[in-house]
Design the sequence.
């Protein structure tokens, strides 16, 4: 009897994680190589008539496409709970999700916002249109979430960041940024052009739902707080959260749930999400 009950408990636990994970490989025309990404599908994807919105979830510096699903296996549960797909592209070791003006082999802005989105829409049952896509990430990927969301508001209707490096000029010698956009003296214009803290000065043609957060003990905390204050000055509506936490996986494991709740609300009743200029 005990064995039967134990088997039943195990079966029920497996059933709760009924979402499935694909590792997709696509060819990048922009970089002339194969690149992988993780695709998490909710259990209800099995029903052939169902289509889903997509959250694109970016990894951080020195990471790769598998980081999120390995470190936060509860993403499978969240895909089921919120009835959405989660796609984790690869952004290279230190691309910062730029199309590097110095290295034509580093075109991760094009890859993530064009090649990956096109591939996912062609090979999976997504709901097309920007109002059914969101992008966010952690650290380097947090910068990428806001950077790509802002520059490609025709592709994404919502964007976010967790512990994002949103002011790259504070790290001129760190994280390989000079390899991507040049040094701060000879290529000073690039350091302004590619920083989230600066690009928000030019509002995109399409409205965006925006959420970002950072732990108060994070080394990126002050720049995130400055981004929040600047958005207030520019009357850019957004949700900003700061809570106790550091620049680590325990913080991101917690933060990603809040962001998925936000994006789910955007997907299901987008009229309730504030838009830039409508504060």
Sequence:
């Amino acid at each position: 009897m005990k064995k039967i009950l134990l088997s039943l408990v195990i079966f029920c636990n497996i059933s709760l994680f009924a979402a499935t994970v694909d590792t997709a490989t696509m060819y990048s025309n922009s970089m002339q190589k194969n690149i992988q990404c993780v695709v998490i599908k909710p259990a209800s994807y099995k029903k052939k008539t169902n289509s889903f919105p997509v959250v694109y979830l970016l990894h951080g510096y020195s990471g790769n496409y598998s980081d999120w699903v390995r470190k936060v296996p509860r993403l499978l549960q969240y895909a089921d709970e919120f009835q959405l797909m989660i796609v984790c592209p690869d952004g290279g070791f230190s691309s910062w999700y730029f199309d590097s003006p110095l290295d034509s082999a580093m075109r991760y802005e094009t890859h993530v916002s064009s090649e990956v989105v096109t591939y996912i829409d062609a090979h999976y049952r997504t709901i097309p249109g920007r109002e059914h896509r969101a992008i966010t990430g952690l650290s380097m990927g947090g910068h990428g979430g806001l950077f790509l969301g802002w520059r490609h508001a025709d592709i994404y209707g919502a964007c976010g960041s967790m512990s994002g490096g949103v002011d790259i000029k504070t790290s001129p010698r760190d994280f390989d940024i000079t390899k991507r956009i040049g040094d701060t003296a000879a290529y000073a214009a690039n350091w302004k052009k590619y920083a989230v803290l600066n690009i928000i000065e030019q509002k995109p043609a399409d409205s965006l739902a925006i959420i970002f957060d950072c732990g108060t003990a994070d080394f990126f905390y002050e720049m995130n707080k400055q981004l929040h204050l600047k958005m207030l000055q520019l009357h850019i509506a957004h949700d900003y959260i700061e809570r106790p936490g550091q620049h680590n996986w325990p913080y991101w494991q917690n933060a990603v749930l809040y962001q998925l709740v936000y994006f789910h609300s955007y997907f299901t009743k987008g009229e309730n999400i504030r838009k830039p200029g409508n504060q």
Confidence is low (pLDDT under 50) at residues 1-15, 270-279. The first strand starts at residue 20 and ends at 28. The beta strands are 20-28, 33-41, 54-58, 85-88, 133-137, 158-162, 209-215, 239-243. The two ends are 61 Å apart (CA to CA).
